[in-house]
Amino acid sequence: MSFTIQKTSPATVVVRIGKALDFRNAADFKASCQEHTRAGVRHFVLDFTGTGILDSTGLGVIFSLYRQLTPIGGQVVFASVSRPVQVVVQLTRTYKVFRQFPTVEAAFENLERSSAGRPTGTA
Amino acid sequence: MHNHSILIVEDNQTLRRLLEYRIGKLYNVRTAEHGEAALKLVDEGIPDLIISDIMMPRMDGFALLAVLRKNASTATIPFIFLTAKTDDPSRAKGFDTGVDDYITKPFDIDYVLARVEQIIKRSCAYQTKLSARIGRDFSDRLMPKTMPEVDGYRALFFSQPREDGGGDLFDWAQAGDGSYLFTLGDIMGKGLQAKFYAFSFLSYIRSTIHAMLGNMSSPAALMSHVNRMLIQDKVLEETFASLLLMRWEPDKHRITYVNAGHCRPILIGPGGAGIVEYSDLILGLDASTEFTDKTFTIPPSHALMCYTDGLNEQVALNGEQFGEVGVALSASEALAAEQPVKTMLETMLSRSAEAMFADDVLVFWLQRNA
B174: which of A48, B114, B147, B361 lies 20 to 30 Å off by Cα? Predict the structure, then answer.
């Protein structure tokens, strides 16, 4: 389990993915994210700094998160995308769905600005 | 062993605590004071093994075992009686009801632990074997037994599923107008679950293709159907798949394809290899995804190669994945070979960090003669 989750505002968390998100830790990732969405988190910034492996199981749990959050106005965005992750994102054409930011700070600011004035935490 | 869960059912509090303490060092333990409480806990989560007393208030051990054995989802939970009833009729009754072991009090805790370990090991081994068998069966059914035979072309197919691999799929069908439709994809996820989803998914695609065989000019229209099905279907909920649909008209040497986030095909010629670039979003994410048909022709002496991510994600000697470029390079070197797919895979393995492929391997190779 290499990822860590940090709550940065009531509606937003930053997940530092770490070295790998793959079939070994995907279930843990899913469970942790679900705990946060149950607690009212709507936006996830996935920080891919230094991530070497994102396999199809890992990508699958990110997709599940997206499918779960989109209907309730939530967002999943990518930050600091490493080269191996960029290759997967290009192949699957998912850059059409997940916005990318150069840094976690830029992603966080954008999310906070776009959700300002909107009530968060309730669907 | 820590991941296995054990349910201890015992009305004597001191004994229950002792068992919880000793067995809890090695396993996840839950406890109940009688059969009724135990059934509630089993409802919340099926344990890997139950150790139960026989004489208890509310519901005794025999009644608990009988209820569990009647229900299909709990019938096979390994069950040990731990009891003061040393009489032969009770022992006989215990074994009659299908108990795995019968330990009498006073007992040696190390003996109990040894039995628990043995029974769990055996049941795990059985499960692994069964999963592997079902997985192989799914894999076999996901792959075709024959390939199209068309003058002027060679159509080759190779598949090497791994037991712990994912849900690769490949299929082909011939339409009335002499064209062919190829389906090649990968269901995200690993193991038996991915294989099962791939199997259900392919059945759906097969029937959709069948219904559309009369009018198959647009693979993109078919792809939109499949995408909507993946998103709306309750059984396939949270299933994501990359999929390549290709219509091949051999007389015109033309391919019309739509690619939903799958590994991009490679067109190999005597002068080198090129990537068939255009592709759309992967399936299962967004119901409103638009898919676009693209067309190209296969020139003489060229081969079209389609594959799944076991190839590009294979790790090369330099510690990095082969990637599209690495796969394309090995493919172009194999173009003139007698058995191009075999040659390409051998070339890749000779440049791999490991002696075998780490994931499922699936290759479809369509070569036009000179």
Answer: B361
